[in-house]
Structure formats: structure tokens, C-alpha cells
Queue: 3 jobs
Job 1
Amino acid sequence: MLAPLTSPKPRWREFGSVLSIWLLGCLVLLWRSLALNGGKLTYCLDDPYIHLAVAQGILDGTYGVNPGEVSSPSSSLLWPLLLVPFVAAGWGEVAPL
């Protein structure tokens, strides 16, 4: 006779361990990156900078990178809008992270 099927118990301890190791690795990489760049956060792609420029443009009353020139330089309409509060608060450089 076969035993009844039971659902496996969730492995929260293992999940928590893996997540903790992953987060620790991310923090170490961020710390080393900041240490090697003199405490300044930099991005290897230009997309975060474009999104930040569009967010700054929104704060200045336009939508685009160049003042007075309305354009859509980014592929996302929503992301620059989500960055606006961070740019206004002075946290723009950290917000895309």
C-alpha cells in the first residue's frame, strides 16, 4: 500500500541562509565599489544617468534631457517619474540602485 502524498514543508531556514549570503555578497560588492571610487557611486551603463536627467527635467518643468526641449530619451515613461522624489530629496545618485 502506498503512503498518502503530503506536501513538503517549507524550508525557511535554508531560504533565509541563502538570502543572507546573497545580501552579504551584494553589500560587499557595493562597499568595495564605493571604496575603489573614492566614495562616489558610479554606474557602468548610461541609462541610470539618462533617467536621472529626465527626472531632473521633470522637476524643472519639462520632459527630456535638454532644457526647453521636450523629448523622450528613455524607454520607460514611469521610471523617471518614480525617481523624481529621490532627485528632489538629493538622493538621485542612489535612487537607480
Job 2
Amino acid sequence: MAQTAPPLRFTGSVPAHLTYPQGSLTALLLQTARRVPRLPAYSFMGRATTYKALVRRVERAAAAFWRLGVRPGDRVTLCLPNTPQGVDCFYTLNRIGAVANMIHPLSAPEEILFYLTLSRSKAIVTLDSFAEKILPLLDRLPAPCTLIAASLGPELPAYKRLFYPLTKTARAGRFADPAGRVVRYRAFLAAGRGVLLPPERGRAQDCAVILYSGGTTGVSKGICLSNLNVNALALQTIAAGAGGDITGNRMLSVMPMFHGFGLGVGIHTPLVGGGCCLLVPRFNVHSYARLLLRKKPHFIPGVPTLFAALLGAKELQKADLSFLKGVFAGGDHLTPELKRQIDSFLFAHGSSVPVREGYGTTECVTASCLTPADHAKEGSIGIPYPDTLYTVTRPNETDPLPPGEVGELCLTGPTVMLGYLDDPAETEAALRRPADGRLWLNP
């Protein structure tokens, strides 16, 4: 029999407007680090890194990229799962005004070649287990690109580091490099010692990151997102999804950081709010369930199929999930029936929160609306984030249709992308600026 949902306590309305910083992602991270220097910023395989230590790591890697010749506006590809090096390098590149080009490490070689060529990347950072796949691509690029290979071993707690050389991941990272073309991450960092960095001068409208999405032509498009876009998303998510304060709360960061959901909600949002990212580079339903029980995260973002699979996980059948403060579904449609099943499961296991659905596209980082915490209309995708407006228009028009008519959904707000990378025709088709002066996205 389905469990009856307990009444939810409404903690206050979501503000219609927020104040957004006019600087970079790293500037906002540094602001958080000054506020909570001793709190953990992220934890990886049981090893925690404080905000103070994270800032040191970012500065050290920034010096290394500067020594390599990376300058403001340059692109560097990060071909990494959710690892400490991935988080460090993302903010490191932003620190020096460079752009992080985020791609899936399991992409086929030809796809990686496409991403490197389109972005004109000066370097690519990946794990040593993927380096052998990427190394042959360097000769096919139109310009030099440095391959930097990181290892997970140094990021593990001491007791796990002892056994790391025996693991499958470590063995996969042993590859032939007779010409010495691959730069090991440790040597890369060491080369930056003594480098004097210029002051951080990032601006809100500077491109900070390139994410990828399939286009109407079937060819993947690079989506250029600004500092403002990603910072605004984080502040909106905290306001609409967590009541305005997540200091010290843990986020189970399993959604990959090369997607807007994983990067914007799973990584940048907790680091802006003083929370802790529990970095998970790889998981399955059973390992995810064990993480829930062991780490007791306060917030868990995920796709509907993941939550559906968790309903049958044997590890959770007698679990106490009262530690949850937010469960967020995105990336695909959450059917009313599945929402009822998930909610019943959550409430039966002590949770006081239902699953909340968001809607968005990578062209606005990720979510641009969210179902409220205290009530939800069945089948609804919620209400827009602060400073975000929706309208429905006829195809290729800008005037809103009257209520009840069917058309295309358009949105405007501080998270709307700068445009598609080197693709003015697709950009013009997706972005409109009608007489109201706002920039409207028609994804």
C-alpha cells in the first residue's frame, strides 16, 4: 500500500529577484572560501579538501597553466569525470581568464578530435587511463595541443593509496609514450613553481565554459556560457531549491561535470554556498545506494531513471532517509506515476521531502524552473527561477500567445547562453531580442 506523504513545512517564498555578482566563478568561490575556510569543499573517496586547501590547489594549477602559455580567452579541454583534478582545473582556468571546454572522457576518438578542433584547445587534461586514446589525435590537430595526464592515486586517502597500483584503473593508466609527449600532472604542477600570476580580473560576461549539446542539424554544438550564467544558476538553485542557505550541507555529486546539471547544480552550487561536494567519478545503482547510507548527503540531484532504479535497490529497503533535505530530478521527463512512486518510497523511509522536478536546457546551463517544496501540480515542471520569465510563442515569432494556445516555449533570464561556438546562424535561430530588449532563448 502506498504511504501517505507527511505534510511539508513551507519555509518561505522564493524571491522574485536576486543580486548577481559581476565577477568570475572563481571570485565567487574565493568569497565562499573566505567565509568558511575550514569547511570541506569536496570529498573524494573518503579524503576531504577544505576550502582553504582548494584555493591553494587552484592557485598552484593556475601558475602551471600560465607557465604553459595559457592566457585569457584561450580554451583548454577538460576530459575528466568528477575528480579533484577536474574541479581544480575548472576553477583554475577561470582564475586566469581561460575557458574550460568540457567533454565526456568516454567519447570516441573522432568525437574528441572534433571537440579539440572546434574549440582550438591549447591543452587537454584527462586521466592517465584515457591518455592512450587521445595521444594519437595530437598529430591530427591544426595547432599544437599539450596532453596532460592525471592519476587518481595521489588523490586517495593514504590507506587506499597503498593498494591503488593493483587496481584495474591504475593498470589501465599504464601506456606507452616513447616520445615523452604526455605531461604527467605532478610534473605539470611542479613546472608552475615560482610563477607570478596576474590579478584575477574576470568579468560577468566573459565566456567561462563550453558545454556540448546536439543541434537541429545533428552535429554537436558548443554552448558558450558566461561567468554570469553559471553564477546565477548556482544562486538561483540555492534560493529556489534549498531555502537560501546550504552551508555545511553535503551534495552527492554523481551527475557528470561535463554536463550542465552536474557542473552547475552538482559542483558549482554547493561550492558557492559553502557546501561539500561528494565527488563520485563512477557509480551504479548499488554503489549509489551504499553511498547514500554511508555518506548521508543532504541533497541528491539525479535523472529519473536513476531514482526509478533506486526503488528496487535491496540496500535501501530498510534505509532511514530522514537526512535528505532535497531530491531533484532533471535531464529527462519525470512522469506523474514515477513521481508518485518515488515520493511514496521517500516518505516510507523517513524523508520529509518529495522529489522535485526541474526543467531546462544546456543553453541556460541546466534547470530554469523547479517545482515548489510545499506543493506541486501533477505533471507540472514548476515555476521559473528568480529573474527568469517564460512565454509561449508561435514558431519563429516573438509575440506571446494568449492562454490556452499551443506554441513554442521561450525563456529569458540571467542564465541564457552567450551563443553557440563559432556558429552565428544557429545562435541567431536560438536567441531573439524583441522590442522588450530582453534576450529570449528558443531552445
Job 3
Amino acid sequence: EVPVHTPDILAAADAVDAYLEAYRFSGEARWLENAVEWARKGIPFIYLWTASEHSFMLGGSIPVFGATFHTYSWFGQPVQWNGLRYAVSVLRLAEFDDSYPWQLIAEQLLHSAIHQQDQEGDDVALWPDWVNVVTGEKCPWVFGPRQILEVIAILEERAEEYQTAILGTGRERIHVSAPARLEDAAFDGDEVSVTVTFPEQLQGAVLVSNVTRPDGVTLDGDPLDERTDLEISGHAGWRYAPELAGLTVYIPHDQPATVQIHGVEFYAVERLPLPTDRIDFSFEESFDGWLPANHIENMALANGYMQADITGGDPYMIRSNLEVDGDAVSSIFVRMRLTDGMTGQFYWTTQASPSFDESKVVEFHVVTDGAWHDYIIPVGDHPHWRGQEITSIRLDPGNGAPRAEVGIDVIRAQE
């Protein structure tokens, strides 16, 4: 639509976000300096003055210094959804930098958007894709107030996004996250503490990542019980997931609350499917990159194996990001226990055929007595396995049962 190198406020907003994330994760001042630089580059797109009878000019934001197809000029024509994206970015930046009045700039962008909303008629509360500051003409394409509300929520400290405090240095860092205000977060090598304030009339959970199982958790000094039904019960408590090295603490009110987690150390596991050229998964300390995809819930580690609930007739789990030589594998060994189901299936994708489909599957008989059984799945002679690079695999542990329990000890390739 516009030449690729046209100066663009939306690009400035994206750059602020990227550099600010780099700063938050690394603590290196150079990334914050880059974020500020790109925030400054966005200011010239915003009308910080008005020479018009139209109230939306002040704070209006043109999208680019250029023209669509070299003919339709964007000077004098704010496209406020671009400016609101920039407003969100500089409000995030304001937490770390006060070299410019970032909040005031964001408020001006917000006020312009509100003034662009229709006050009556079929489009009441809607606002246009673009508006002309000279004639007042509005584009017939209109938007709901979604982005306007996003900026208001941030200004009122009711941001939709989770806030994260990063504790520690180098690679050994603990993350504390919640859809709330986090203050005084600290880790002394044995205890994590943080004061959490949820928005008014809201409550929820705090996630503490990269920690061992705690000796105990207190809320405002009172011990909390370990619970498996945190969100359902609505009562304060905590739950630990060793396969994710994650602790969840539920706070059932919107008043400031101090959480203290006692007797914890840094501990990290692989949560995402990292690249591997081997099919060799034993679920000793993590899910080894396996993710539930359909009708599988409550995945957890127990005594060196993975267990889960089957909640429908087509359960399956997926391990992606593989680079496996199909010719090096004759069969897949699975050690599994199952309480119900009619048949098991093993699917895969290849570099040449990157989707799961019925041309790349082997079915196998399952035993549903709840005891451990070994299964050998012959894939090596399959025409769509042999000679291929295997890029992901999928296990359907037991199709056909509305409810069942499954445990998986090993999924391993055999030569």
C-alpha cells in the first residue's frame, strides 16, 4: 500500500515493544535506550496542536509520512488505531523511563479517539478507520471501542495483560506473573515474596515459574493449604506442577496481599518442544515437549511417568519440532496403561507432507485393564515413513471412550 521504507508510527510502536521486552528480560540499559529512541520517533506523527474546529485534531495520529499507491496522501488524515497501538507501547515504556511525558502523550491519543466516536445514530460509540482534520470527513469503515478501552484499562491499572516481575540474574531467574499490580517482588535464595493487588472486584492467580516445590506458602502471614481445585473452589491456596516447575497461588480478593513462598530454589524444565533428532521420551522431569491437543486434560508427572485424563472420544497429544531420519527407525515402543478405549493410533508429519492425515498413521490394539503394557508400533516399512524426515508425531492413546485415565512411561524409537 505504501513504499516499504515509509516512516510509520505503527512500526515505531512495534520497535518500542520489542526493545522494551529485551530490556525487561536482560536488564541491559542499551535496549531501554533503543526503546526510548523509537518512542521519540513516533511523536512527529501526532498532532500536539490544533488549528481546527474539530476536537479530534489534538492527539490525532497520522499513520505514515507518505501516500497510498503514491497518490492518496495521509497527511492531515489521522488513522487512530495506529496511534492507539503506539499509546499502549509508550504507556508500557513510562514504567521505566520519564524522559518524555509518555502518559500525557497516550492520553492525548486516547482523547482524540474518543472525540472521533459517533455520539448518536447507527454508529454510536464507533469510530472511523480514518478522519480528515480539515473537512471532518470520516471513513465509512468503523471500529468498535475495543482499543479505546484497552488504553483506558491501562491508565486505570486494569491492564488485560499479565504483569511479570523477573527476579535473579543471568539464566537463573524466577518469573512472577499475574493480571495484577506487582510490588516489592524479591527472591533471597530461599524465599520469594511479592505484594499483589488485583483490580477492584477482581481476583485470580499468581504464577511463579522456575521454582522447586515450596516448604510452605503464606498469604499476609497466614499459611495456605495445598489444593488441586484452586480456581473451582474460589478459596485461597496453592498448587505446584513439577513438570512445569510452576507454582500457582490463588488470591480470592482484590485487596493488597503479600505472598511469601518459603523454602524454594531456582529450578527450570523444558516446557516447549525444543528441536531434537531423536524420538526418546521418558517423562522423568518434564513433558519432554509433548502438548495435549484434543480431549486430554490434567497432564501431570507422577513417579517417573506422565498421567492424564481422557475427556472425549478422540484424545491425542503432539510432539513437534523433530528432525528424525525415518530410515533410522523401524518401530516405536510405547509403555502405557489405559482404563478405557477401543484403539490406539500413531500419526506423524514429514518435511514433504507437513500435516497430520490418514495417509500417515498406524493403528494398534490397546489393553484397557489399567495395568502397564508394552506396545510396538511398526512404522519403518510404511511408505510415508520410509525415506522421510519426520517433523512431528502424534499419539492417540485410546479412541472411543468418553472418559478414561492414561499413563505413559516411555515413547521411544527402535532401530
